């Protein structure tokens, strides 16, 4: 019989895939002898089984849950649903990777009309018992049954208003009894049945709700953003309750062993006296800093610190812990490797190496490659910052600089982002439903909530700048305005946030580019030491190339020459070339372009100081260069001395039904070899002249796009070689040059052995290769890909994350075939995937020579390449 349920003492930290992160850590802490309220974990496999059985929990699983419940009852000397001494439990989700998008915790499960009396008698506190029961009804209805919580809040407000009181704590036992009655009526009205009195029914409904939450929309969005597979499932943790709301010697809190924002060593966290679990994260009451616990409950603080240090030593990483104190007794509810900003991650990893706790390789693997993106974002320009008008200050919840227009709902933030606006989301407080809007925002500002509020935790995870808990703000979300520092800001007004200081500025402050230094540089140096893959960049201008060099690029893997033609002084010339009727006319037009191309290439060669540069010859369909509106066509006709109608007809004749599969790529060079001739001359002359001038030894790499057949490449190659040799002769140079191709058509991958006879190198153009392998237009997938996510056909965008099963097979095959023909063939990738960590790992496995990505992703690729190499050796 399969085992679906594990007591905490039966598990361990390495059972994370089966028990989820929370379950595995609860097990580990139990085995370390720490004070953990006992309980059990229903496995992630039980979740998968629930889905496989058409969303049903099998009798076998149910039996095992109840058997473990009996063991827990025995241990706690309490009984589920008992009149005298009832057992109450919490129910929490816990996936393999922590996922804030999933189900909220349910507390106090096991209370009913009978057990609440037993609970009151045991605790000697009727008010406390009724308050727990009303909270449970509210939570169960909201989280498990999806009855809106606003209905319950309204009742609570009514009762308070009638009594002329402000706080829940001012309601007595009788008031709460009345509230419970009304809550149960709401439940019955909405659900068509009584609130479940059988605790076992409550428990099974809660377990089902956790399983269901694995597939709620927020969780799916979160998974997609974080590359978490949909078939992992979540575990469910059932744990005996301890109470932080039993008076002034009770409390609850969350704490980190190091600062999750900066990485600074030292305890960091918050707690609330006389409060229950979610009160701290919900941001409704403002919590105390953890160090103040030393004054409130010194013994608990000492014990807490001892355990916190022990946990960090044990896990050899910064811990994020939840604890509860019940009548002076300290309990740990969970621990996990804490989420942190990229800046903190770098500092923590370097400090742990210096403290002798981890190796350089481990430090490299501790940094999430994608998170480096946060550090590559701009910070505020010093002068702009000095002159900026500070309107107020909140908590520095997640670092970074952000400036944009304010929006008050996640939905509007998303829409504005879609329009290309920079957005600052301003909310009273955020909740998990806001996740997409938060993702679309440059920065997040909240009125309520501490450093561990939802907004703060999620923003840090995303690397988005966040200032939280700015209580000085007067906000009206419905009317879309807020006031701060005596100024009213309406939707669409600009503000700027500094997530590192918590300062809120008026207007749109200027930012400056990031640099790699300090801990960042140290980690990158370690990464370079261990990686096998080379990292190049995709750059079309000297400015981009310089940026990439600063970020560690070792060469250019893709220089898209067409981008050079769009400048105002060049486009008329390329248009003239396209609209020419004869070869002579075309050549004349191209001759005018040579000086421009040549100086562009010289600029790039000079910037790259002799590092390898791959220049890709003209690729896009020609219609992209010609005007579409009549005024532009008229101007062009005038310049060319042609009739408007003639030019218009010619432009229209360039129309294609499938331009992406039309007259583009090497097909342009097949039909108009003079284009390849012009580009070859420009490349060769530029390289020879820069070599002579600076003493470089550039060997230009000329890359032919969209090849599908050896003969096609051979044809274009012949044209290039003729001109290159001619230029060499003219310039009396013995410069070496290389001709290779992109592999971006499936046929080229299939026939890579033949193509390698002509190509000295392959560069996988995985944008087109994905497009052609899937048959998905790369420009149109946005229209339907969401339905594919919703229907679980695909979990991620194949244009962002390489489809290793399909497209990956083609790459692997082409690499093998290429090497068979030409053992020293140089293999690279220059599609967008070259900067995606999981795709980089694949490239390492396949044994490519280099990856090439946009400048800002160079550090990400360097780190991902090192992680792939280190993991490969283990
Ligand atoms: C590719 O297709 O992957 C590629 C790099 O070329 P482009 O994006 O310019 O088509
Ligand atoms: Mg391409």
Principal-axes geometry comes out as elongated
The CA-CA distance between the termini, in Å, is 34 Å
Q: Mean pLDDT, rounded to whole units?
A: 92
Structural class: alpha/beta
Listed once per kind, the bound small molecules are:
phosphoenolpyruvate, magnesium ion
Summarize the model shown:
The protein is of the alpha/beta class and 874 residues long. The chain has 34 helices and 33 strands. The strands form seven sheets. Strands 14-24-23-16-17-18-19-15 form an eight-stranded mixed sheet. It has an eight-stranded parallel beta barrel with strand order 26-27-28-29-30-31-32-33, surrounded by five helices.
List keywords for this structure.
874 residues; alpha/beta; 8-stranded mixed beta sheet; 8-stranded parallel beta barrel; 34 helices; 33 strands; 46% helix; elongated; binds phosphoenolpyruvate; binds magnesium ion
Describe it.
It is a single chain. The protein has 874 residues and is of the alpha/beta class. It is 46% helix and 18% strand. An eight-stranded mixed β-sheet has the order 14-24-23-16-17-18-19-15. Helix 13 crosses helix 19, helix 14 crosses helix 19 and helix 20 packs parallel to helix 22 (583-608). The radius of gyration is 32 Å and the shape is elongated. The two termini are 34 Å apart. 52% of the residues are buried. The model has no long low-confidence stretch (mean pLDDT 92). The chain binds phosphoenolpyruvate and magnesium ion. Magnesium ion is lined by residues 705, 744, 765, 767-768. Residues 558, 560, 619, 744, 765-768, 830-831 line the site of phosphoenolpyruvate (PEP).
